[in-house]
Known about the structure:
This protein is mostly helical. Among the domains are: about 25-95, Helicase, Ruva Protein, domain 3; about 100-125. About 55% of the residues lie in helices and about 0% in strands. The chain has five helices and no strands. It has helices spanning about 1-15, 30-40, 55-70, 75-85, 100-130. The chain is elongated, with a radius of gyration of 31 Å.
Amino acid sequence: MRCVLGLCLVLLGLAAQAGEAAPAAADPVLEARVQRISIELRCLVCQNQTIADSNADLAVDLRRQVREMLQQGKSEAEILEFMTARYGDFVLYRPPVKSSTWLLWYGPLTMAVLGMVVLLLVLRRRNRMPSEHFDPDIPEPDADTDPRKF
């Protein structure tokens, strides 16, 4: 009985800490625009999520700031420009292709091509080596002739 009472008290304590859900926006068109811009901005805390997907405090603040800027009449381009000026190209989930982001865009492809070239060179070199450079294949001992068996 004490265990059940203790469990109820713990559950009541957790329920008291639960926050209320944020009310839905009165203007669904505004919310759609906020969502569209939020998908374009990277969460600076999570770094692998957009601010639309993240629940980090900074992401919530950035969504609120985007909403306020839209209510002030700013365009989506102006908001993205403001965020880029404040946080750099890193805040954009899809940064533009320019000299400072070449490594980001072309780095993975370059590494994959270099890896394939190195692999090809190693395999060609190995094929040209004489067989004396390799350990000979030693056959498995037969179960009938294995001296350790007796």
